[in-house]
Amino acid sequence: MEISDLQASLRQTYVERDAKRGRDATFRWLTEEVGELARALRTGDEDNLVHEFGDVFAWLASLANLTGVSLEDAVARYARGCPRCGASPCACDFR
Amino acid sequence: MEISDLQASLRQTYVERDAKRGRDATFRWLTEEVGELARALRTGDEDNLVHEFGDVFAWLASLANLTGVSLEDAVARYARGCPRCGASPCACDFR
């Protein structure tokens, strides 16, 4: 699935609701889902973990739709190795 | 760009470092980037906003790589309308 197609699908499904809710409340939803992802990592329920990754991704896309950002463009600098050192595997100092 | 290709590229570039760092520290990095996204929303710097969306996406993919989750599979239920009501635009009660 193309990143841009996924974002477009979420736009069609949710952008009116996202706009009505607004940026700040949509960001709050994103962080709520990040919290649920944290819990899924702790409990180790595989299905729930997959579910929460999907929710974080979807809310990130909703927030991108609200702010006019293309997730595909945003992540493009990671598509061919490390954007900092240019290597793959990354050869930067470990962090 | 395919979601799976992006995740594979990030795996090749970072998975050894991600594994060395571990799940919890990688999750911490994800939340740090979510915080930077919050600041970018506040300051309104467009280039920085795009940058931070990319960073959140990349760290989410790193965490998915560490936990063996396919982001493409995880988000698939959002590819054709709302997974709750089945409609697009979504017809669920507004939240």
Descriptive overview:
The structure is a homodimer of 95-residue chains. Chain A is built from four helices and no strands. Chain A is mostly helical and 95 residues long. In chain A, α2 (23-43) packs antiparallel against α3 (46-67). Chains A and B meet through α1, α2, α3 and α4 of A and α1, α2, α3 and α4 of B.
Oligomeric description of these chains: homodimer
**Helical amount among residues of chain A, as a percent range?**
over 70%
What profile does the largest beta sheet of chain A have? none
> Which spans of chain A have pLDDT < 50 for at least 5 consecutive residues?
none
Mean pLDDT across the residues of chain A is 97
Number of helices of chain A: 4
User: Which strand-content bin applies to the residues of chain A?
Assistant: under 5%
Question: Which H/E pattern describes the elements of chain A?
Answer: HHHH
* Shape designation of chain A: globular
Class inferred from helices and paired strands of chain A = mainly alpha
Largest interface: A-B, 57 and 57 residues
Instruction: Please give the number of β-strands of chain A.
Output: 0
End-to-end Cα distance of chain A, whole Å, is: 31 Å
Integer-rounded radius of gyration of chain A = 16 Å
Features:
95 residues; homodimer; mainly alpha; 4 helices
Blueprint of the fold:
The structure is a homodimer of 95-residue chains.
Chain A: H1 3-21, H2 23-43, H3 46-67, H4 71-75
Helix pairs in contact in A: 1-3, 2-3
What is this entry, summarized?
The structure is a homodimer of 95-residue chains. Chain A has 95 residues and is an all-alpha fold. Chain A is 71% helix and 0% strand.
